[in-house]
């Protein structure tokens, strides 16, 4: 769910205000109408209609709310269950007390109205009315008799006398008005106490009707708030042919009696009316009460929805926020819905998620930093020519690098996390190394150096080790060991020493050789002729031997000086293939030698000294020839091909012979001077070859073929890389870098 | 209760009329338009009971005269209301009719007599001839009804609800002759 929805479904304050503004006036008017029904009675029906319309509106609102809530509840929307519980609580809290009050009000109202009326009062009023009627009846009877007497008195009168007689009679009887009229209502004569009134008060048709039927009439008329007694009697006819007349007498009751009678009448009428109206009154009161209750209840229910929504809203927002945070989304800011404690909660929640997001970002940054540092470290370690091993305090391998793998000849990366003791059990070569450094690992020396020599797969290996204890938080946490394979360096130093020895020897030996030879020849020349034959032959043999051996010595010294000769390279483009063919021509024709060439057609010319390369090829072939047993046949295969090492183009020259091969124990030292298995030769052939190769920046190795014989592989770079022999300055630098007394290694041996 | 309230709203114009206009006779007398009418006033039992219990009934005769207009609402020329109060005087057992327009009060020993007086309209002047234009059509209408709004407030609610109280004749309409 999104927060846009959150905002849209949130309750609005103006809804509540609008509803209140609608309900309050109708409730107020219902109240005052109930208080003063006469004054506002015209409003009453409209108020009822208004109240009903409002109720319907509220019902609609509530229905919409209920429908929405049910939908949310069914879809298990966040906060809907809490909403339902709150609304139910609110509704019960409002409906129950209101219902109780309604019930009692209903009861009180009904009983209260009933209490206004009392059978005794009613009986008393009825009795009072009857009493009044009885009193009036007597008065009326008297007046009827008096009127009848008057009628008899005037019955014999001529109409012309009637008017005077009437005035007289009226005054005698204290009447208001005395009238004689026909049955049809025509006035014959009239006398009124007020002479200005010309038209007398005529009896109603029904009274005349009654008289025509032969019955006299007496009754009370309520005229103008005062009671009058009206008697209408027939006037006895003195002449049957004469038209029949009636006489009407209007006489007032005495003021006292009139007032009392009117009071009784009014009291009775009012009580009767009230009594009659009590059911409608009750009904209208109850209707009002019920409407007020209905409006209040519906308002309360709506208010329950409203307040539940307002209460739940922040909680719902919080719940959604919590779910988002749980799913790892820290970016959402919850909308602030209120300023109360819940608002503070939302604010705190926002702060919290912000801090979590910051902490997470920080953690990610440091992780990235650590990773980049690790990558950087690995890159540095990988480019190091020195091998590096890091062990923890339990001597478990933690870090290593490519140079270490190369030096030991197996992949140490796979053994990270393994104790080096176990690694040693698996790799005997490594075990030599462990045994050599173990004393330093167990001692508490912070730093140490050691040169370790052992025999590995590629012969004797010399490692120069430097170690240091790792200290973290003032406690020992492991070792770092850095080591270099100085085998080749030692070898180079040994070679250089040999060269030096050879040069000095050649120099020292060469000087006396010529005098020795000259002296021997001079002895022979001077004394051979003068000596007897026996002595002469001894002299001859001895001087011959001396001269001969001096020649041999001279050869030897020459070879020495060849070996020790400082490089003076004359570089030019050399086609190895052409050079090979040229040299091999010298060896063609030997029946015991079969040389086959397998030359690459795409071989590039290399930068080299052609004389040296020629010497190299000659020496190699000579070496092969010297290695063969006497007069046996020798097959030599020569290959050239293009190779590459670390992006640099190389020319590879491979020479395979079918000789006896190299003894295993010599294979590591075959390039040292005078290491030879051959019956003849100077012992400097292969050393010189190696020297030439190294002068050209190349490499050489000798290995035995599986089918017998030796294979020599020479690799020469296409572009010249001229190696120099170490001069004195460089050697002193090397000496200074090595531990005291350790270098040069050859001095120790 | 809700159903009763609903009936109150719905039954506004659907009550049976126990009052009726029996005949109307209208003509010009000395340039004054005068009406004679005979009205049938049958009170329902509820109304009679209320009358005897001291409730005053207001009976009103409404007379309207309108000028017809073809494309517009009709124009009202004259509007007349004759209002009578009918009550019962328990002490004297008389029915009292008060003519509110003039203040005249008449007593009748019988209810029918009182109703006959109210129901007989004699020579009632409506308007002067000066108000009439020659080329227009005038329509007059008359009805008699019991005015519920003058009943006591509690009774009025019942009167709206119960059909016995909705006493009114239909409008009796005729065209004015000039």
Provide a descriptive summary of the structure in words:
The complex is a heterodimer of chains A (749) and B (178). Chain A has 749 residues and is of the alpha+beta class. Chain A is built from 19 helices and 17 strands. Chain B has 178 residues and is of the alpha+beta class. Chain B has one domain (18-175). Helix content of chain B is 19%, strand content 45%. Chain B has helices at 2-10, 45-52, 111-118, 153-161, and strands at 19-29, 32-41, 57-67, 75-89, 94-99, 104-108, 120-128, 138-146, 172-175. In chain B, the strands form 2 sheets. Chain B has a 6-stranded antiparallel sheet. Chain B has a 3-stranded antiparallel sheet with strand order 1-2-7. Chain B starts with a helix and ends with a strand. Residues 1-17 of chain B have low confidence and may be disordered. The A-B interface holds A 37-38, 41-42, 44-45, 48-49, 52, 129, 132-133, 136, 204-207, 219-224, 227, 261-262, 264-265, 268-270, 272-273, 275-277, 280-281, 283-287, 290-291 and B 1, 4-6, 8-9, 49-50, 53-55, 89-94, 96, 105, 107-110, 113, 149, 152-158, 160.
Strand content bin of chain B: 35-45%
What's the end-to-end separation of chain A, in Å?
84 Å
SS-derived structural category of chain B: alpha+beta
Number of strands of chain A: 17
Structure annotation, total helices of chain B: 4
- Low confidence ranges of chain A: 1-10, 722-749
Structural class call of chain A reads alpha+beta
Q: Low-confidence parts of chain B, pLDDT < 50 over ≥5 residues?
A: 1-17
| Overall 3D shape of chain B | globular
Please bin the fraction of helical residues of chain B.
10-25%
Record the strand order, biggest sheet of chain B.
6-5-4-3-8-9
Give me the number of helical elements of chain A.
Answer: 19
Rg from Cα of chain A: 74 Å
User: Which strands sit side by side, in order, in the main sheet of chain A?
Assistant: 2-1-5-4-3
Give the C-alpha Rg of chain B. 18 Å
Mean pLDDT of chain A: 80
């Amino acid at each position: 769910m999104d927060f846009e929805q959150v905002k849209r479904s949130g309750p609005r304050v103006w809804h509540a205000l609008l509803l209140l503004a609608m309900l309050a006036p109708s409730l107020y008017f219902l109240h005052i109408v109930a208080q003063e029904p006469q004054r506002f009675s015209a409003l009453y029906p409209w108020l009822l209609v208004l109240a009903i319309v409002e109720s319907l509106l509220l019902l609609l609102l509530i229905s919409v709310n209920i429908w929405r809530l049910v939908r949310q509840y069914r879809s298990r929307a966040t906060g809907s269950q809490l909403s339902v519980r709150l609304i139910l609580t609110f509704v019960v809290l409002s409906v129950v007390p209101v219902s109780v009050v309604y019930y009692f009000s209903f009861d009180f109202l009904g009983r209260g109205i009933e209490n206004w009326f009392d059978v005794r009062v009613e009986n008393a009023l009825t009795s009072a009315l009857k009493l009044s009627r009885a009193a009036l009846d007597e008065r009326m009877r008297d007046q009827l008799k008096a009127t009848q007497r008057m009628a008899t008195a005037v019955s014999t009168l001529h109409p012309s006398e009637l008017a005077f007689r009437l005035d007289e009679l009226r005054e005698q009887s204290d009447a208001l008005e005395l009238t004689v009229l026909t049955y049809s209502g025509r006035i014959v004569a009239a006398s009124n106490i007020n002479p200005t009134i010309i038209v007398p008060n005529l009896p109603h048709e029904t009274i005349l009707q009654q008289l025509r039927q032969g019955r006299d009439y007496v009754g009370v008329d309520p005229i103008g708030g005062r009671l009058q007694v009206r008697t209408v009697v027939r006037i006895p006819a003195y002449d049957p042919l004469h038209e029949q007349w009636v006489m009407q007498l209007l006489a007032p009751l005495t003021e006292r009696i009139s007032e009392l009678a009117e009071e009784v009448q009014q009291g009775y009428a009012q009580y009767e009316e009230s009594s009659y109206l009590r059911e409608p009154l009750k009904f209208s009161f109850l209707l009002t009460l019920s409407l007020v209750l209905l409006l209040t209840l519906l308002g309360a229910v709506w208010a329950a929805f409203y307040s539940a929504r307002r209460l739940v809203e922040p909680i719902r927002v919080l719940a959604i926020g919590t779910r988002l945070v749980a799913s790892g989304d820290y970016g959402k800011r919850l909308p602030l819905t209120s300023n109360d404690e819940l608002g503070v909660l939302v604010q705190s929640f926002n702060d919290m998620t912000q801090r979590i997001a910051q902490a997470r970002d920080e953690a990610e940054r440091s992780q990235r930093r650590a990773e980049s540092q690790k990558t950087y470290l690995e890159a540095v370690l990988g480019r190091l020519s020195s091998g590096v091993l890091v062990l923890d305090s339990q001597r478990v391998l933690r870090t290593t690098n490519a140079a270490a793998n190369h030096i030991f000849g197996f992949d140490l990366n796979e053994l990270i996390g393994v104790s080096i003791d176990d690694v040693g059990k698996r790799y005997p070569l490594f075990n030599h190394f462990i045994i050599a450094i173990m004393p330093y690992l167990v001692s508490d020396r912070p730093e140490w150096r050691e040169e370790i020599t052992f025999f590995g797969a590629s012969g004797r290996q010399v490692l120069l080790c430097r170690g240091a204890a790792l200290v973290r938080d003032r406690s020992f946490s492991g070792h770092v060991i850095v080591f270099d394979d100085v085998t080749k360096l030692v070898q180079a130093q040994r070679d250089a020493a040999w060269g030096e020895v050879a040069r000095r020897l050649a120099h020292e030996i060469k000087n006396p050789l010529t005098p020795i030879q000259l002296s021997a020849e001079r002895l022979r020349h001077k004394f051979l002729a003068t000596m007897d034959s026996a002595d002469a032959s001894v002299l001859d043999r001895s001087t011959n031997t001396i001269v001969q051996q001096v020649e041999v010595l001279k050869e030897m010294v020459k070879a020495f000086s060849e070996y020790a000769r400082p490089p003076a390279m004359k570089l030019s483009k050399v086609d190895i293939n052409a050079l090979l063919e040229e040299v091999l021509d010298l060896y063609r024709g030997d029946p015991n030698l079969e040389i086959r060439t397998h030359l690459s057609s795409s071989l590039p010319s290399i930068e080299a000294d052609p004389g040296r390369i020629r010497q190299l090829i000659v020496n190699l072939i000579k070496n092969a020839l010297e290695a063969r047993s006497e007069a046996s046949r020798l097959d030599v295969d020569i290959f050239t091909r293009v190779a590459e090492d670390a992006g640099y183009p190389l020319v590879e020259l491979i020479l395979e012979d079918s000789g006896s091969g190299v003894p295993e124990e010599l294979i590591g030292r075959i390039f040292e001077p005078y290491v030879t298995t051959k019956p003849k030769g100077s012992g400097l052939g292969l050393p010189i070859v190696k020297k030439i190769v190294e002068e050209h920046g190349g490499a050489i190795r000798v290995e035995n073929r599986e089918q017998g014989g030796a294979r020599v592989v020479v690799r020469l770079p296409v572009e010249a890389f001229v190696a120099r022999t170490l001069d004195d300055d460089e050697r002193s630098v090397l000496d200074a870098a090595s531990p005291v007394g350790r270098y040069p290694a050859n001095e120790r041996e | 209760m809700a159903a009763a309230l609903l009936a109150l709203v719905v039954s506004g114009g659907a009550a049976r009329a126990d009052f009726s206009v029996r005949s109307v006779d209208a003509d010009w007398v000395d340039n004054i338009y005068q009406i004679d009418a005979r009205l049938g006033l049958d009170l329902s039992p509820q109304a009679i009971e209320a009358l005897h219990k001291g409730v005053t009934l207001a009976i009103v005769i409404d007379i309207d005269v309108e000028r017809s207009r073809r494309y517009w609402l009709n124009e009202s020329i004259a509007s007349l209301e004759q209002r009578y109060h009918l009550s019962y005087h328990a002490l004297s057992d008389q029915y009292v009719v008060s003519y509110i327009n003039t203040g005249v009060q008449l007593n009748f020993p019988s209810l029918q007599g009182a109703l006959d007086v109210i129901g007989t309209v004699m020579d009632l002047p409506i308007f002067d001839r000066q108000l009439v234009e020659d080329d227009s059509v005038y329509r007059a209408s008359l009805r008699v009804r019991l005015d519920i709004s003058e009943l006591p407030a509690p009774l009025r609610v019942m009167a709206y609800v119960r059909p016995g109280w909705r006493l009114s004749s239909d409008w009796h309409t005729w065209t004015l002759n000039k």
